[in-house]
Design goal:
The protein has 418 residues and is α/β, with parallel strands linked by helices. It contains 14 helices and twelve strands. The structure holds nicotinamide-adenine-dinucleotide.
Length: 418
């Protein structure tokens, strides 16, 4: 064991394998990515010199359908990390039962230090280098850290140039004009809202008396906060990288949204409202609330602060905000954690809708998108909830049990080729 992040992903799989009595033969197959591709990505920089970046695409599983997963541009990208993220995409798609396997891609680079033209050239060369294993029916990329709808537009164009036709279904998270889906931008936060409402319903909580704190006021956090506010919950705390605000009577979320529209880098810093106190990110996590939504970074709830968490419920908007040690402490204290693979799956579900629309060349209206998202999120929540009650395990374990069982059953039914 090298102790890398992929080892952590394998340990999760091994633990679940025991709980579901997974056939050791199937287990052995699921412990390895199906395919790993590492490519050199030479890019002519604006000053004329050539920089050679390293890129990866890992297809963890195609057992249940085409591989699916985002593309990350970051200086810390490693093959080990991409493998772990590809495994987690496999389980996430299986938890919400959409017909996809899992994949992930990444290029080790710092796009914030590159010009837009350099990033565009990098994207096109990387796309061509991994194109032999991509395809709208084989492996469909999407945005991740430091990639956007614009990046997906460049990828889709590159693939389309080689195919000689517009291949809309080749990537998701595209601009609307290129076959992107309505509602995609809000889908992850909206999914967090649906999941939170379903949990509150199970626990018979009155929405007007429910207090919520949200860490991270970006794409996921701000949408989740706004939609829960619109449903009548009291959002008492929000924060971002500049710190946070707390009002026990409930924050004025529409006013905050107006403020961040024009604030520097759309950050909360400088916001003013009567009765509001400033809190640090650390304090925000420890507020006495019903629901805590970590929607910023990984490793926020750790063995250091888990004992002091007062929230009854945690809905993980971010990926990996709770460490395994913290998980154990929270469980002992009776805190219900809705795991990332379920709570933030709304984004990939809407990517699935985008792909379905692209293939059918028929586009849905926003009501159809949101109603279908609601249905899938609530059904997945109920399935995980049922296993959690039946087997007396926490929601994370139950989600993984559902996911791994689905992938394992599909593999069993397909059999091992030849
Ligand atoms: P984002 O960049 O839009 O927002 C991130 C927010 O976190 C910002 O408000 C930022 O200020 C805040 N933040 C950054 N550093 C912080 C710190 N040290 N302390 C407190 N706040 C900090 O990103 P996003 O798309 O909203 O993603 C947030 C999380 O959700 C990530 O973990 C991401 O992997 C996960 N996620 C996103 C999607 C999606 O569709 N956007 C889907 C699934 C999971």
């Amino acid at each position: 064991m090298s102790g890398g992040i992929f080892d952590m992903a394998l340990k999760q799989l091994d633990d679940v394998a025991k709980k579901i009595n997974l056939d050791p033969n199937i287990h052995a197959v699921l412990r390895q990515p199906e395919r790993e591709l590492t490519v050199a990505v030479p890019v002519e920089m604006d000053d004329g010199h050539i920089e050679v970046f390293t890129g990866h695409r890992v297809q963890y599983s195609s057992v249940r359908g085409p591989c699916k997963g985002g593309i990350r541009y970051h200086q810390d990208v490693t093959l080990d990390e991409v493998k772990a993220l590809a495994a987690w995409m496999t389980w996430k798609c299986a938890v919400v039962n959409i017909p996809y396997g899992g994949a992930k891609g990444g290029v080790r680079c710092d796009p914030l230090k590159m010009s837009k033209e350099e990033v565009r050239r990098l994207t096109r060369r990387y796309t061509v280098m991994i194109m032999p294993i991509l395809g709208g029916r084989r492996d469909i990329p999407a945005p991740d850290v430091n990639t956007s709808a614009e990046t997906m537009g460049w990828m889709m164009d590159t693939i389309s140039m080689f195919e000689g036709r517009a291949v809309l279904e080749s990537v998701t998270g595209k601009p609307i004009e290129l076959g992107g889906s309505l509602g995609r931008r809000e889908a992850t936060g909206r999914g967090v809202m649906f999941i939170t409402l379903q949990l509150l319903k199970k626990m018979r909580c009155d929405l007007s008396e429910t207090t919520v704190a949200v860490q991270g006021y970006g794409n996921v956090g701000s949408v989740a906060a706004t939609l829960l506010y619109e449903k009548g919950c009291k959002i008492v705390g929000v924060s971002d990288v500049t710190g946070g605000f707390y009002n026990p009577k409930g924050l004025n979320i529409p006013k905050i949204n107006e403020y961040v529209k024009t604030s520097k880098n759309n950050l909360l810093e400088g916001y003013k409202e009567d009765g509001v106190e400033s809190v640090s990110n650390e304090e925000l996590l420890l507020l006495d609330v019903d629901v805590l939504i970590p929607a910023a970074l990984e490793n926020q709830i750790t063995e250091r602060n888990a004992l002091k968490i007062k929230a009854k419920f945690i809905a993980e908007g971010a990926n990996g905000p709770t460490t395994p040690e913290a998980d154990r402490i929270l469980e002992t204290n009776g805190v219900i954690v809705i795991p990332d693979v379920l709570a933030n799956a709304g984004g990939v579900v809407c990517s699935y809708f985008e792909w379905v629309q692209d293939i059918q060349a028929y586009f849905w209206d926003i009501n159809q998108i949101n109603e279908n998202l609601d249905k899938i999120m609530v059904k997945s929540f109920d399935e995980v909830w049922a296993v959690s009650k039946e087997r007396k395990v926490d929601m994370r374990t139950a989600a993984y049990m559902n996911a791994v069982t689905r992938v394992a059953n599909a593999l069993k039914q397909r059999g091992i080729f030849p």
